[in-house]
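Why do we care about 3D structure at all? Because function follows from shape, and shape follows, mostly, from sequence. That is the central idea of this module. The next example makes it concrete: a single protein chain, its amino acid sequence, and then its structure expressed as tokens.
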Amino acid sequence: MKLVPGTAPINTGAFLNVRRIFDLYGHLIQRLPQFGIIEQLIAAGFPDPRTDINKIGLISDLDQQS
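And the structure:
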């Protein structure tokens, strides 16, 4: 196994299947106290992650941590 030096830029990306996560764990996610904030955002017009979002992509530059 080769370790990456801490000074090298580390760009990474990931795709999350939001619909699949809610299909499997939606009943648990909706019980979280923080889900109330999501419901307020949905009421304000933001997409509903339970039905409106299929997949999302995330990117990060781990070299620029602060």
